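Same chain as my last thread, 244 residues:
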Amino acid sequence: MKVTIITPTYNSGSTLAETLKSVASQDYKNIEHIIIDGKSKDKTLEMAGTFPHISKIISEPDKGIYDAMNKGIRNSTGEIIGILNSDDKYTNENVLKYVINLFNDKAIQAVYGDLNYINSKGKIIRKWRSGEYGRELFLQGWMPPHPTFFIRRVWYEKYGVYNTDFYISADYELMLRMLYRHRLKCVYIPHVLVSMLTGGHSNGSLRKRWIANREDRKAWEINGLKPESLTLIKKPLKKLIQYL
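reply #2:
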């Protein structure tokens, strides 16, 4: 199976090399790596051009990170799709092997694993340990770490891509739609798949967390779903234990 990895970039010259190296070093080699760039003004494109494993680079103005992800999906040819942002990296060379070993079971539609948040010096400051999948966990404020989430491309074609009406929580809405609303079979990989640099798109400020909480509520509403009374309170609270 071909795996498509989509990396949105915009002025990512300071972090992109580590992202690209982590994909190039994978033992699983049937990879289509697509860079969707928002017309960077730094050396992002120059750096990307030095990695021969990259299949396609598209650089043009976009409407934000989720618009870039959607462009990547539209330009993908892999059966399996994952998103790896330009300040994230795979933790070892076996990540895509773990992914494909599960997708060899045709009944499995999506997979996810664990994630570490790291600072600029590479020190782990927060650990996101997802645990085994259960659809009812969404009602407890649970979600899988989006950078570790892989899904068959056919489900994007059937149920839609990222909703660009969302500024921060389009990834949550998409996974809620795919896994909770449409009940796709999803399986947990008990390994840390991704290291993510702190201060990213949805974690940079208290204001962003407020916006995310408002959008989380909207994600349930537009899917015709009803959370429990404490679902949207439990979701941000679950992040606190990741620092322990």
